[in-house]
Predict the 3D structure of the following.
Amino acid sequence: MDDDLPRRRSDAAAELAGESLDSYSQDELMERVALLEAEIARVKAQHAKAADHRKLADSLFKSKGSDG
């Protein structure tokens, strides 16, 4: 399945992790936290969607394999 193949991506998380936070105000830091939490929620939702899709596909293939 193509989903299992490695993909070349930029690593925005690594770039963010390497950025100095010294110049940010407290408000800017809290805004950043909120954005990152929203991104985490988005990634978790996508992961759950992919897991559900995978579970459905696995159940379909198991059914077909058991019949024959």
